[in-house]
UniProtKB/TrEMBL annotation:
Catalytic residue list: 229
PANTHER family noted in UniProt: SUCCINATE SEMIALDEHYDE DEHYDROGENASE [NAD(P)+] SAD (PTHR43217), SUCCINATE-SEMIALDEHYDE DEHYDROGENASE [NADP(+)] (PTHR43217:SF2)
Organism: Kosakonia arachidis
Gene Ontology terms, MF aspect: aldehyde dehydrogenase [NAD(P)+] activity; succinate-semialdehyde dehydrogenase (NAD+) activity
Aldehyde dehydrogenase domain ranges (all copies): 3-452
UniProt cross-references to Pfam families, sorted A to Z: Aldedh
Protein name: Succinate-semialdehyde dehydrogenase / glutarate-semialdehyde dehydrogenase
Length: 456
């Protein structure tokens, strides 16, 4: 059985789940497609927005229970699980309040006649989602698509089945009809077959490049729209005029939140040489103060990685980085005999021929680079296969803005870590994927932007 809950704090198996059968997948597809052709999808948007409002309230009311499921299932610190749940309610409420405006017809002045673009649902969407934000990732797809009228079939990551079920249950409880959101415990091959099915019109994936490439290739083969939210190797640039203590405090948060398992986590710290020694000293001190422990214990500041496989992979990456010439400034190995803990780690002296230079480290491992000037910082930032987010710290906002414009990523934050909110577009360029989620841009990804012209 592929779907199982294993507590990453002690690697104890809690529960296993059977995969859905072919017949169950067919029922799910039939129901979703029927819903798309019904007055639910094609009719008044208000009925769908009412569900989103109700969903937001339900999530708020069940915050603690939902947070505990996530912390037990993938090891997120309980306070961070609560924040994630809260954010989900905000996203549901945001689309409930704004989707009508986003999907309203837009006029296009033209000499050929009265012209406008309408926004219609396109059909069933296949969503494939990762475990690192086990509710938020689902809400990023559910809220805009429910508002737009697209039914969604979702394959969640196999290590978070309880989160997947809890989310699907809430959507139903909020009043969504059967087929609006269906959780499926299925394999990659079954995802592929679903994408090929003529009843499905799009695929949205958040995850690794390997999975993204497989899903987007299948979507392209069958001429279907896809969006990909993939990995990142985000920079955290600290210029010589930055507020140093603030940069250190936020930098630590940017690297260690969610045990470092965030697509937009700060992974490459690029520090101006004039402040590099000071930064590294303070940053190292802060990493040393981290308290590893049970994610459900409020005093813990660093939880375990999500699985034993994730721990092994990170350990191997760090060993290889050091073998190829990187200097281990702090940490560097698994931290406890039980559970998937990895020491807060700092690597320096990483050269371009070291595989670590281009790799995403999905855990509490910071790479520190020192640069002489702004041009060098930009060059290093852009020398990446990824292009997701990034952060710049400087007291000179004009200087930081100029630098932000030169960085090849989908998002840049000045004097803050790469963050997220319902109203802000989220997504990347290069191997970080394509398309945007959240905001007005997110809801336009899977709608038919239909032109109508009345010739006078
Ligand atoms: P992953 O292995 O790609 O898994 C993500 C999802 O894809 C899971 O549901 C997984 O199912 C499924 N999957 C894997 N291979 C597949 C295939 N060939 N066909 C269809 N589905 C497939 O990624 P992960 O390691 O769990 O997640 C971490 C990655 O996600 C990191 O690179 C991170 O940066 C990225 N991420 C990006 C964003 C963003 O918004 N840009 C947000 C969060 C995470 P199983 O679990 O059953 O394998």
């Amino acid at each position: 059985m592929a779907y199982k809950t294993v507590n990453p704090f002690n690697n104890q198996l809690i529960k296993e789940y059977a995969n859905h059968s072919d017949a169950e997948i067919e029922v799910a597809l039939t129901k979703a497609d029927a819903l798309y052709h019904s007055s639910w999808s094609k009719g008044d948007i208000e009925q769908r927005l009412t569900v989103l409002h109700k969903l937001a309230d339900l999530i708020d009311n069940q915050q603690e229970a939902l947070a505990k499921i996530a912390s037990r299932e993938m090891g997120k610190l309980i306070a961070q699980s609560r924040s994630e749940v809260q954010l989900c309610a905000q996203i549901a409420r945001y689309y409930a309040d704004n989707a009508k405006t986003f999907l309203a017809p837009v006029k296009y002045p033209s000499e050929l006649g009265e012209a406008w673009v309408e926004h219609h649902p396109i059909g069933v969407i296949m969503a494939v989602e990762p475990w690192n934000f086990p509710y938020y990732q689902l809400m990023r797809v559910l809220a805009p698509n429910l508002a737009a009228g697209n039914p969604v079939l979702c394959k969640h990551a196999s290590i978070v089945p309880q989160c997947a079920e809890a989310f699907a249950h809430l959507v139903r409880e909020a009043g969504a009809p059967e087929g609006a959101w269906t959780n499926l415990f299925i394999s990659s091959d079954e995802v592929s077959a679903i994408i090929a099915d003529p009843r499905v019109q799009g695929a949205a994936l958040t995850g690794s490049e390997k999975a993204g490439s497989a899903v987007a290739a299948q979507a392209a083969k069958h001429i279907k729209k896809s969006t990909l939210e993939l990995g990142g190797n985000d920079v955290f640039i600290v210029l010589d005029d930055a507020h140093l203590d603030k940069a250190v405090e936020i930098g630590v948060q940017a690297r260690l939140a969610n045990a470092g398992q965030v697509c937009t986590a700060a992974k490459r710290f690029i520090i101006h040489q004039d402040i590099a020694d000071q930064f590294l000293r303070k940053f190292t001190d802060a990493f040393r103060q981290v308290k590893l422990g049970d994610p459900l214990d409020e005093s813990t500041t660093l939880g375990p990685l999500s699985s034993k496989e994730a721990l092994d992979m990170l350990s191997q990456q760090v060993s290889e980085a050091v073998q190829k010439g990187a200097k281990l400034h702090l940490g560097g190995k698994p931290a406890k005999s039980e559970g998937n803990f990895f020491e807060p780690t700092i690597l320096t002296h990483i050269t371009r021929d070291n595989p670590a230079y281009f790799e995403e480290f999905f855990g509490p491992v910071a790479q520190v680079y020192v640069v002489n000037n702004d041009d060098e910082a930009v060059r290093l930032a852009n020398d990446s296969h990824y292009g997701l987010g990034g952060a710049i710290f400087s007291r000179n906002i004009t200087r930081a803005k100029q630098m932000a414009s030169r960085i090849e990523t989908g998002m840049v934050w000045i004097n803050w870590l790469t963050d997220t909110a319902a109203e802000l577009p989220f997504g990347g360029v290069k191997r970080s994927g394509f398309g945007r989620e959240l905001s007005d841009l997110g809801i336009k990804e899977f709608v038919n932007q239909k032109l109508v012209v009345v010739r006078q």
